[in-house]
TrEMBL record:
Location of the Uracil-DNA glycosylase-like domain: 52-212
Catalyzed reaction equations: Hydrolyzes single-stranded DNA or mismatched double-stranded DNA and polynucleotides, releasing free uracil
NCBIfam families: PRK05254.1-1, PRK05254.1-2, PRK05254.1-4, PRK05254.1-5, ung
InterPro entries noted in UniProt: UDG_fam1 (IPR002043), Ura-DNA_Glyclase_AS (IPR018085), Uracil-DNA_glycosylase-like (IPR005122), Uracil-DNA_glycosylase-like_sf (IPR036895)
Gene3D superfamilies found in the cross-reference section: Uracil-DNA glycosylase-like domain
Species assigned in the record: Martelella mediterranea DSM 17316
Protein name: Uracil-DNA glycosylase
């Protein structure tokens, strides 16, 4: 990873993690992957893209994913999001369907979610890197501890945040969130395997905005621009 370049508010709170033994081990693992000729996604400068686009003091909503996409050109540091020009993945197609039913979302021809991130939606994967064409290949190497720390910082430092937890993995990872201050919204995962078991009809986007409004916080504009370059 080299010298960590990170949004200053996050860097201050997460500095102990970067100095930890598990992070040293993770660095060594990533160096070895590249020495051994493995292609790792996303690019190194995008490992912490979610944190850079959504500073700690601006976090309104947290959406948790698991791993980056492992195909060429897909991952760029935000969960569920892909670069412009890349086919929209099936889970995100289902997210768009629920958005349309919930808040009147107009379908777009891309899967680039930076528009949300810049408004305060922290699109955080549990594991921040992956080997090309090898799903879950970087699990258990230290990233989970780091992203647990990110969630703890949000829980402790932010007054009122909506945690949108899709699927058992995300729900377990954020099980310690203080529900007396934050809103926790749970449903099955939007993947084609589980979306019909309760994801569709769960209305997380309108519920999130209702909570934010009740706290005097500006709601999220979930409508993505037609042109991803306008994000």
């Amino acid at each position: 990873m080299g010298e960590i370049k990170l949004e200053p508010g996050w860097k201050e709170k997460l500095q102990p993690e970067f100095e930890s033994a598990y992070m040293a081990g993770l660095r060594s693992f990533l160096v070895d992957e590249k020495k051994n000729g493995q292609v790792v996604f996303p690019k190194g400068e995008e490992y912490f893209r979610a944190l850079d686009l959504t500073p700690l003091e601006r976090v309104k909503v947290v959406i948790l994913g698991q791993d980056p996409y492992h195909g060429p050109g897909q991952a760029h540091g935000l969960c569920f999001s892909v670069r412009p020009g890349v086919r929209t993945p099936p889970s995100l197609v289902n997210i768009y369907k629920e958005l349309a039913a919930d808040v009147g979302f107009q379908k777009v021809d891309h899967g680039f979610l930076e528009h949300w991130a810049k408004q305060g939606v922290l699109l955080l994967n549990s594991v921040l890197t992956v080997r090309q064409a090898a799903a879950a290949s970087h699990r258990g190497k230290g990233w989970e501890e780091f992203t647990d720390a990110v969630i703890r910082v949000v829980n402790d430092e932010c007054p009122h945040v909506v945690f949108i937890l899709w699927g058992a993995y995300a729900q377990k990872k954020a099980s310690f969130v203080d529900r007396s201050r934050h809103l926790v919204l749970k449903s099955p995962h939007p993947s084609p395997l589980s979306a019909h078991n309760g994801f569709f009809g769960s209305r997380p986007f309108s519920k999130a905005n209702q909570f934010l409004l009740e706290q005097g916080i500006e709601p999220i504009d979930w409508q993505l621009p037609k042109d991803p370059g306008e994000s």
